Amino acid sequence: MQGARAPRDQGQSPGRMSALGRSSVILLTYVLAATELTCLFMQFSIVPYLSRKLGLDSIAFGYLQTTFGVLQLLGGPVFGRIQCPAILAALATLLGAVLSFTCIPASTKGAKTDAQAPLPGGPRASVFDLKAIASLLRLPDVPRIFLVKVASNCPTGLFMVMFSIISMDFFQLEAAQAGYLMSFFGLLQMVTQGLVIGQLSSHFSEEVLLRASVLVFIVVGLAMAWMSSVFHFCLLVPGLVFSLCTLNVVTDSMLIKAVSTSDTGTMLGLCASVQPLLRTLGPTVGGLLYRSFGVPVFGHVQVAINTLVLLVLWRKPMPQRKDKVR
């Protein structure tokens, strides 16, 4: 099997990849990610209204979301009943898998001098070796960065997993209106990740961007606690998207730089597991908070947690790296 992949990787070592080739890979990866997320949210957008039609309340809907998070966390390919969106999502995902395998190089990260590659002929760690995966979380600075990533994402994750219910109960939106709002959210996210963060990273360090994202989270949380209409939420969305995108990009960059080339994929997997983890715990917790205290509680939680995170960042700065966020 290794011989079959040799022609695709031959002459394209990560350090020698041309600028044009690297740009093509980045563009293709961006398109694939956008396609996959679009198909995923096509299904997400109809689930809340379908659940409401079937008589589920916010707590039961939270359990449904928790089930989805558990399955997503475990990586199981779970499909529901066939709806046109599900078929389209399956076909688009299959196309994305084919393009990923045929057009993206096996490795795109340059070799490091301190990378600890396995010796030729030596034993190789199993992909299911949980000890090897957990060992990455014990590397210098990795636990603190990962904790900041999870803690700062938690309040927003609680709000977003309950947003479908909030859009129906609190904002009184119809399915089409909720779809427009999510499209606005997605458009801002695309612009922020594709344009804004790249420009900011060329002028500011990762530490500054990380602190700024947490600080904006606090401001957004304060405003969210007083939010009373969908118009108010639309005013908050740019700040929320900026903080969410910047935090995830910066922390992912820090974590990837903290490991060797051979462990890049594992660390990316750990980074990607944060959202499924929040989707596992968030719906149940979010449903209970929403039923007991209403929408303002999500703003209060966001302010409290991110204030603690900001104090930690100011007390002990993150390690500085020479290369910028990409």
Automatic annotation (TrEMBL):
GO terms for molecular function: transmembrane transporter activity. Gene3D superfamilies: MFS general substrate transporter like domains. Signal peptide: none annotated. Keywords: Membrane, Transmembrane, Transmembrane helix. Its main location: membrane. The chain crosses the membrane at residues 25-47, 59-79, 86-107, 145-166, 178-196, 208-226, 233-251, 293-314. It is a multi-pass membrane protein. InterPro entries: MFS, MFS_trans_sf, Tet-R_TetA/multi-R_MdtG-like. GO terms for cellular component: membrane. It comes from the Eukaryota. It holds the Pfam family MFS_1. This is Solute carrier family 22 member 18. It comes from Homo sapiens.
